Large-conductance mechanosensitive channel
Amino acid sequence: MLKEFQEFISRGTVVDLAVGVIVGAAFNSLVSAITTYLLNPLIGLFIGQIDLTDMKFQILGATFLIGDFINAVIQFLIIMFVVFMIVKMMNRVRRDGSRSKFDQSGEEIPDPQTEYLQQIRDLLRYQQRNNNNNRY
């Protein structure tokens, strides 16, 4: 059982996942600090309140923490933007890695073998149509 665990933990995907979780947690802390200590005071200057976390209202004894919600939305948007940029970069790297299949305009250059097979297919269809027309 220990050997199976060692094989499982030494797989590249498990290690990659662990690194991703650790980096993600650190990034989340960084975004939280940026939002709390930099963006909130800046936004607070424009709305006349220094700390957004103090923004709240009460209805029938229930307290709604608008400032905390705004913080969470800002953090979410920052993280999603960074994830979007990473995915965009990775797609560009993959696309550039297979650049030989694309010309300068981004159009896919057809594989010669595929072109020949398509021509054979079209020729067979043409011959089949002519044979069907000649029968009647």
Observations:
- The first helix runs from residue 2 to 9.
- The chain has a mean pLDDT of 79.
